[in-house]
Amino acid sequence: MNAIRWLGELLEETHWSFVVAVVVIYGINQGFGYALAKVGTDYYMKDVQKLQPSESQVYLQIARIPWVIKPIWGLFTDIVPFFGYHRRPYFILAGIVGILSMLFLSLHEKLHIGLALLSLMAGNAGGAIADVTVDACIAHQSVTHRSLAPHMQSLCSMSSSIGALIGYSLSGVFLHLIGPKGVYGLLSIPYALMLLVGILLDEQRALTDYTQVPKKFWDAIMRMLTTLIRQDVWGQCFYMFISFALSLNIHEGLFKWETDSKAGPSFSQLAKAYDVAAQLRKLLVLFHRLAQSDPFLVQYCINIV
Length: 305
Known about the structure:
It is built from 14 helices and no strands. The protein is mainly α. The longest helix is centred in the middle third of the chain and has 38 residues, at 149-186. The protein is globular, with a radius of gyration of 22 Å.
């Protein structure tokens, strides 16, 4: 009952279309859709495109470029409205781009890897545009309803977690029934719901002077640069960049080895390996808590090792 009351409060204080937008983008598109696309793309690159792990990794990283340039999409949603609306047109655009790209991947036989890569990039662009747009909606609602800001973040996390859990649970079933290309056809449904969000979202229309758009772009870029040169900001950004850039990613190679019927491991061996990995993660959590409670003891253990 508390969960129902909590959800009812969000619906009453904000608007039902806003709650639907969060559930669709975070739960259905990013949660369920990402889980389904992750597994489906691995098999698509391996079984349909016949790519080696090294090639697949390069193409998949290129396909994720639209997510890397998310700040650019954010600038557009804030500064460049269409027909007086800042959010609804971008949801509609993201939905249309995503539907077309997923159907293109699903319906074409023997698609060239270049066209497949462009389609994957278009699908990621649709997801990234919708992500920054719904984040802008959440930021606006957090300003107008400050007491509900933590609840909105909880709604985002809950929607994403439940969607991902369902997606990963059903991804194997869908792959077995309809194959990787069929999965892409199925992924057009979350983008169709995204398009519906753009049609139904409650947003006030505003008057816009398009002659001020270049100036607004310049002012926004300068504010971003001013923030970035702060020591407490650029230091954190540099650390995150280095940590991501230097971390090894062997997912594609590991996936091919795991799914190889001849050279790969048996199911029992794979289960044991993942069990050991899970136990190591638990030890890391305990180590982190120990570091917070007694950092000198941790440093002493490190010196002994």
